[in-house]
Amino acid sequence: MDLKYDIYNISNVAGSGEERKYVRLKQQKAMTASELEATIQNRCSLTKGDVAAVLTELRDIAVQEFAMGRRFYIPEIGYFSLSIGLDMPEDNPDKKITGKEVRLRGINFRPEASFMKEVGRNVRHIVRSEYTSQSRNYDEEKLWAKLQEYFETSRYITIRLMCNQFGLS
């Protein structure tokens, strides 16, 4: 299957006036737990119930390991680790840092090199998406003109109607 991406622009990067481009992969919907269980059941001798039990235990062990400050490793896939950050009050950025300002941000994933190689071998093509999910960029004059044109035939507008009418997201 082809992987599809879209190109995005960030204008006025760091206030410098320059524009930076980046690409973002268009993700497909994730496999559900039930689909995963059925797929594994079809590939080996485990039943859906066995798979569900293993996944539940895997989750519980991961929670336990993270609570002890350890990374969590799944053989042949990779490492998971906690990510933390600092939430300093805006009104007092020089305040002494205590545990109250440190927050759990998320979970990082670092795949094993062999896992990445195998995924790379199975990706056929990386192609630009035919359709974009980006909003159109309107300057103020164009947007007012569009709104005036719209209100010639309609009495009100909602956010949903505006998004649909003007190609916004």
In brief:
By secondary structure, this protein is an alpha+beta fold.
Polypeptide structure, described:
The protein is built from 5 helices and 6 strands, in the order ββααβββαβαα. With 169 residues, it is an alpha+beta fold. It has 2 domains: 132 residues, IHF-like DNA-binding proteins (HU Protein, Chain A), CATH 4.10.520.10; 35 residues, no CATH class. The longest helix has 20 residues. The model has no long low-confidence stretch (mean pLDDT 86).
List keywords for this structure.
alpha+beta, about 170 residues, about 25% strand, HU Protein, Chain A, extended, three-stranded antiparallel β-sheet, three-stranded mixed β-sheet
Blueprint of the fold:
Layout: E1 3-11, E2 19-25, H1 33-43, H2 48-67, E3 72-74, E4 78-86, E5 102-111, H3 113-122, E6 126-128, H4 140-151, H5 159-166
Parallel strand pairs: 1-6
Antiparallel strand pairs: 1-2, 3-4, 4-5
Q: Mean of residue pLDDT?
A: 86
Q: Detail the poorly predicted runs.
A: none
Structural class by helix and strand composition: alpha+beta
Q: Major beta sheet, specifics? A: 3 strands, mixed
Strand order of the largest sheet: 2-1-6
Using the 3D structure, state the CATH architecture of the largest domain. Answer: Irregular
Question: At the third CATH level, what is the topology name of the largest domain?
Answer: HU Protein, Chain A
Q: Total number of β-strand segments? A: 6
Helix content: 25-40%
- The tally of helices reads 5
* Share in β-strands: 15-25%
Cα-atom Rg, whole angstroms? 24 Å
Q: What characteristic shape results from the CA principal axes?
A: extended
Output the helix-strand order.
EEHHEEEHEHH
CATH homology-level superfamily of the largest domain = IHF-like DNA-binding proteins
